[in-house]
Amino acid sequence: MIVLFTSIQTLPHRIRGLHFSKLGDNFCVMGASLVHGNPLFKKGAEESVTAVVGSVDKRCGRYVGAFRKQDGKVARIPEFGAMPVEVLSRFYQSEKYMPYNILFYRNGVADGQFVQVIEEELKSI
Could you tell me the CATH number of the domain that includes residue 44? Predict the structure, then answer.
């Protein structure tokens, strides 16, 4: 059984049961997000910040992140291929093997851009 602990508003939460059992014992949890700056709030805030965060151990208890700045008009993450590789190499350093499965979450995509973003970013992994 795999138990994933998270914290929402400083309250610990746990996913109970065998929800991740199909992933097996050898997997990594990753997530990517894109946050746009607000040019009305601050001059020069046209840039966006992108991040990929992932677990670096088989118990999903330790995480690392890769972060980039990019043009604020783009919904996809141009350097997406390099960022998961950084996380996966840290997983390998920790566990001495690569995960067989990756559970991936993606945030910051508008409904109309979802298919395009998934096609481009999935290919880059």
Answer: 3.30.420.10
pLDDT of 95: 92
| Structural domains counted in the chain | 1
Report the percentage of the chain scoring pLDDT > 70.
74
8-state DSSP, 61 = -
In terms of C-beta density within 10 A (0-12 exposed, 13-18 middle, 19 or more buried), how is residue 83 classed? buried
Q: What residue numbers bound the domain in which 36 lies?
A: 4-124
- Tens-place pLDDT, residues 71-101: 776 777 777 888 989 999 999 999 999 998 8
Computed on alpha carbons and rounded to an integer, the radius of gyration of the chain in Å comes to: 16
The answer to whether the Cα torsion of 20, 58, 89, 110 is positive or negative is: positive
> Helix (H) and strand (E) counts for the chain?
2, 6
| CA dist., res. 28 & res. 19, Å (int) | 14
Q: Categorise residue 75: left if φ over 0, alpha if ψ from -120 to 50, beta otherwise.
A: alpha
